[in-house]
Specification:
Helix content is 41%, strand content 17%. The strands form two sheets. The protein has a four-stranded antiparallel β-sheet, covered by helices on one side. A three-stranded antiparallel β-sheet has the order 5-6-7, covered by helices on one side. A hairpin with a 6-residue loop joins strand 1 and strand 2. The longest helix has 30 residues.
């Protein structure tokens, strides 16, 4: 999910009463909820580093153990440097608990997107996908922000835990996530039923921006990708898109994998395809992921989800 969503989750967790467990409790939860995204630095390294490192080692299971310890120690040091006027202090155990809760919330939310998560890094470099929410979901913002606003306006600290606005917002968010997961599963079932005479080898039902009741589908076939749309609140609920994309020459992708950056990109790409041009003693292979890009025949097209590898004559032979 996006940083705003992670921040709202951290703040909502704080307002359930957890922030009172330790000094700097709210700050600890908000920082922890965003901490795994320190790997965003990979986006500035150039090449395909962002594809190779994002949602990997800082999001994997070992990081869920190490990052809370580091953050708890830093917050404990801060509390020692700035003693509380009222004498209230923080224990490492409480700060570790808050750090762990915040850090664990991050990959759980990231897994819900089509971008995916690598839970087992660095031991196993494998992607897992939730295909449940669009990466920027306005309903998540609305639910969590409303809970925070009501928490500020009401004396929720004296209310039973389950009646606090922040708790209700988190429960509503959980129900919303569950409903979207069910919509994705329904979209896949309907698609397979509609295409039972010519089923795809793989498919993905992708949430879209603004409309949680719609899914855009990528359908993989041996030589091409096809596309479809599922709408829960419309008739017909399923419709094929006339667009098709050739997957390209498999030999191009094998050549691209021999390049470090090309290998990083292709390991990240869930539905890769390519086009290539040969000339002046080199082969230029432009690759894209059909999750996000549906046309790469424009020579000027570049950006997220597109990567180019140049293989000089004699290389990769």
């Amino acid at each position: 999910m996006d940083p705003i969503c992670h921040t709202l989750v951290g703040a909502s967790l704080a307002c359930t009463g957890l922030e009172k467990k330790a000094r700097f409790g709210r700050s600890t939860l908000i920082i922890a909820a965003n901490l795994p995204d320190i790997d965003v630095a990979a986006m500035f390294w150039g090449g395909a580093a962002a594809y190779g490192f994002r949602r990997g080692i800082t999001h994997g299971l070992p990081a869920l153990v190490v990052l809370p310890v580091i953050l708890a120690l830093l917050m404990l040091a801060l509390s020692r440097l700035r003693p509380a006027r009222d004498g209230v202090d923080s224990s490492f155990r409480c700060l570790l608990l808050l750090s762990a809760i915040g850090v664990v919330s991050h990959p759980m939310l990231d897994w819900l997107n089509t971008y995916g998560m690598r839970w087992l890094m660095p031991m196993v470099d494998q992607w897992y996908y939730g295909d449940t929410l669009f990466i920027v979901d306005w309903m998540m913002w609305l639910i969590l922000a409303t809970g925070l606003l009501l928490t500020r306006r009401m004396a929720s600290g004296d209310q039973p835990a389950l009646r606090r606005p922040a708790v209700l917002a988190l429960l509503t968010m959980t129900a919303y996530v569950g409903a979207n997961f069910a919509i994705t599963q329904q979209a896949e079932r309907v698609t397979l039923a509609e295409l039972q005479s010519n089923p795809p080898t793989r498919l993905m039902a992708s949430p879209v921006a603004l409309n949680p009741l719609r899914r855009d589908l990528v359908l993989e076939y041996p030589d091409e990708y096809r596309f479809a749309t599922y709408r829960l609140n419309d008739s017909p609920t399923f419709a094929m898109d006339p667009l098709t994309i050739a997957r390209g020459d498999p030999a191009d992708l094998e050549l691209a994998r021999q390049d470090r950056d090309g290998a990083w990109f292709l390991h990240w790409a869930r539905f890769p395809y390519s086009v290539s041009q040969v000339g002046r003693g080199q082969r230029v292979i432009k690759m894209a992921d059909a999750r996000y890009v549906r046309q790469i025949d424009n020579p000027r097209l570049d950006g997220f989800g597109v990567f180019t590898v140049t293989i000089r004559e004699g290389e990769g032979q």
